[in-house]
Design a protein that fits this description.
Layout (H helix, E strand, L loop, with lengths): L1 E2 L8 E7 L6 E5 L3 E7 L4 H10 L1 H18 L3 E4 L4 E8 L14 E5 L4 H34 L6 E4 L6 E3 L5 E4 L7 H13 L8 H10 L3 H11 L11
Parallel strand pairs: 2-4, 6-7, 8-10
Antiparallel strand pairs: 1-6, 3-4, 5-6, 9-10
Bound molecules: zinc ion.
The site of zinc ion has 3 residues, from loops.
């Protein structure tokens, strides 16, 4: 059976008493919900008051997690750099044991049935992402390195929490695999930036002037990268 309806993964608010806690704290725990941690001897009315005072914040966090959960079970993936629209089909049976790959523009996965399988779903998509991101980014790096006549040693593409790329003193270039969700001018900027570190390891004035030579008017793209690139990354890809 094939399912295409949007999933409704319930998010919850719950309280947990802790012997170690000294004050009440509110923790967001995606994909499950929001947890209120309460010191063991706290009065129930005081807890109710704190929840009431923070209701708007709690509701906002719950709806953010709910939205994110839907995004962890995507119905389509778009890769601007290859202009690929990939359809995702979820099967109700648990019969998929074949490697995850795009066949006729479609990825087939098992239907997530609960929170744990929702997390598994994003892990499976991440395995697939790792496999496809490496050749695409290597290709752009090789083309850019050749065009700019800047040598590099090795490339490594992988999961990164907060950086788009780095360059080691051995001239190895590391790239965040989520770059694949960005437009090609942003990817080229990140790659050119890292290639310039082959000659200038620090962010010195001579680094920026070299970058400006290699990537004229880089500031506009640099600002775009800082301000809205992370919103292009789907929740399932975030590690
Ligand atoms: Zn840098």
């Amino acid at each position: 059976m094939i399912s295409s309806e949007k999933p409704e993964f319930t998010v919850k608010l719950w309280c947990r008493k802790s012997q170690k806690a000294h004050s009440i704290s509110i923790r967001t725990l995606p994909p499950y919900g929001v947890e209120i941690v309460i010191p063991a001897n706290t009065n129930d009315n005081f807890v109710k008051k704190i929840i009431g005072q923070n209701q708007a914040y709690i509701n906002q966090k719950l709806s953010e997690i709910k939205k994110r959960n839907i995004d962890i079970k995507p119905l389509a993936i778009f890769l601007p750099v290859t202009n690929e629209h990939i359809k995702i089909v979820y099967l109700k049976s648990t019969s998929i044991h074949t490697p995850i790959e795009v066949v006729d523009g479609t990825l087939t996965l098992n239907e997530p049935t609960g929170m744990e399988s929702l997390i598994d779903n994003s892990k499976l998509l991440q395995v697939w992402l790792q496999k496809i991101a490496t050749p695409v980014l290597k290709n752009i790096l090789d083309t850019t390195a050749q065009k700019l006549n800047i040598p590099y040693n090795k490339i490594k593409v992988g999961p990164r929490k907060s950086i788009w790329g780095s360059c080691s003193y051995k001239q190895n270039i590391n790239l965040n695999r989520n770059l694949i969700f960005l437009k090609s001018d942003l990817i080229e900027y990140v790659i050119t930036h890292e290639l310039c570190h082959v000659f200038e390891m620090n962010h010195s004035p001579s680094f920026w002037s070299l970058l400006n030579e290699m990537f004229p008017n880089y500031r506009k793209i640099k600002d775009q990268l800082r301000s809205n690139a992370s919103s292009s990354i789907p929740s399932w890809a975030i590690v």
